[in-house]
Design brief:
Strand content: 25-35%
Mean pLDDT: 93
Order of helices and strands: EEEHEHEHH
Largest sheet: 5 strands, mixed
Number of strands: 5
CATH class of one domain: Alpha Beta
Structural class: alpha/beta
Length: 134
């Protein structure tokens, strides 16, 4: 089974479960990135799936909001690394739904990454530097 994680917007995340090439479960959840793990846990419980049932993780790397993209790729990287299962990274510039994405050529032709997935942001970073102390 493949777990799909997609968070391109700061306000929510989508999880999908693929079995034998078909999307058999999907959860779209509203929540800030600090809740992504709890939302994932709820989705897995809804599907009666445990981490040991997963044979692959796929993550939408972006383009998306900074925090949403960073956290979702970090979660996917951590699951794949800790379970020692393949990780597939897929860009979704058209922001397709999971149902549309998993039947796309980009998704079907994606191969496991070597190392870790890297987030892709929807705009150049703007980092505010701390003000110098007095």
């Amino acid at each position: 089974m493949t777990l799909v994680i997609a968070a391109q917007d700061i306000k929510g995340i989508s999880f999908g479960l693929i079995r034998d090439g078909a999307l058999v479960g999907e959860v779209e959840a509203t929540g800030e990135p600090d809740r992504y793990l709890a939302l994932l846990d709820a989705a897995l419980k809804l599907w009666h799936v445990g981490p040991t049932d997963l044979t692959q993780v796929a993550v939408v790397t972006g383009p998306g909001a900074f925090t949403a993209s960073r956290i979702s790729t970090t979660v996917a990287n951590a699951i794949a690394f800790s379970r020692r299962i393949p990780l597939v990274a897929v860009a979704n510039p058209g922001r397709k739904s999971l149902e549309q994405l998993i039947v796309s050529d980009e998704f079907r032709s994606a191969t496991p990454v070597e190392g870790f997935a890297v987030p892709v942001y929807d705009r150049p970073p703007h980092i505010t530097l701390p003000k110098p102390r007095g």
